[in-house]
Amino acid sequence: MSKIPNELKYAKSHEWVRDEGDGTVVVGITDHAQELLGDLVFVELPEVGDTVDAGNECAVVESVKAASDVYSPVSGEVVAVNESLADTPETVNEDAFGEGWLFKVRLSAGTELDDLLDDEAYAEVIESEEH
Amino acid sequence: MGNRTVLYDTHVDMGARIVPFGGWDMPLHYGSQLEEHHAVRRDAGMFDVCHMTVVDLNGDRVREFLRYLLANDVARLKTPGKALYSCMLNPQGGVIDDLIVYFMSESWFRMVVNAGTTEKDVAWLQSHAPAFDVTVQPRDDLAMIAVQGPRAREKALPLLPAQLQGEAERLEPFFAACQDDWFVGRTGYTGEDGFEIVLPESAAVAFWRSLADAGVKPAGLGARDTLRLEAGMNLYGSDMDESVSPLEAGLNWTVAWEPVERDFIGREAIQARRGDPANRRFVGLLLTGRGVLRNHQKLFVGDREVGEITSGGFAPTLERSIALARVAPEVGEACEVEIRGKRIQARVVRPPFARNGKVQVDL
Could you give the domains of chain B? Predict the structure, then answer.
């Protein structure tokens, strides 16, 4: 069973969001998602300055076996991306909720975080997918 | 739920992620596909290949039968135990399956065919067998385990039945030895040395566990695919199928044109295209830009679409992305691959990409 930290918010499509408290959030994929994907070998991130829209694909993570879209859980402007993943995509496998973060967004409308799932609701999503 | 091999519960015990494949529930990996891949290139790994089918062909005219059924010529098999890789073609020259056939005796040849094609293969063989008084017997009672890697043979040998060890140890590549229902071939699908071992189903779980205890790493279909791709070996259903001629799938070398008087199914169709400069070429690609090559990505030279990737992926030994592709005859040393709407540069190379633990192309 993968871990699901309770200080993060989640999307059904297996992304996590960490509120930085300054109008920005950090986004990554969950431990459950990296487990499903297997060994990652390539990550394609948005560019700093790009606009992302909640629910739209904005990054791609590729494992040995397949490519998978990452959907932005929030809307806003990308203010940073995890450039170290270009050389070490396996960091996402090793530390999905920490060093394996993907990008940082300055939120356009601050209310969106309320629409996201908490840890318990996300655990139910995983549960329902497995049965 | 798909079919399960006799090793299914053991895979689950060992932490396998199970996926459907060719009608079977098979292990994709046991934690890390990359580690399993490296274990086979550097040491020893094992694969459950029980989903593939052993077919025994018996009869006094079995050699004559196979000379008609297969595009390669079993007349080349002169020493008992010798194996041959061949395509089985339809009359239009398309590939029904690719397989390995072993010459056991003048009245017994053994074939190993792909999982997803077993039913049609057996039906095809059976439809032609009566004319040659040959019996076709799929051996559902046998299990099969591939043990592959530079240290695979030394680790597997002591675990074989005692009477088979000496002969198995002396096997040359592409030969097999047999003792009752145990059968050991020095063959594989990884580009490494090793054995493919056929054994009674009742002995399979204990044998698998003893191999694991000897330090042979269980490896799943994921590693099997990246290993065979690096080795430049075709995968049926991806690189060729019934709509593709072996001449456009890099398999010219498996077609025995001589002797010219040998008639085999599909000969007339493919002979008409032999040496045709319009034939598409089957090549290797090495991605020089960033990304991962995948099946069905389109290839371009300038604005012209020149072909498609038939098998693509990340090559752990090269730490680069590679592919097998079918391209227009005029494609030269480079082309572009369309990945999510962008064109990424790739170099045309000659497979294999890696074999016997070593990279075989210039990076």
Answer: 1-275 (3.30.1360.120), 280-359 (2.40.30.110)
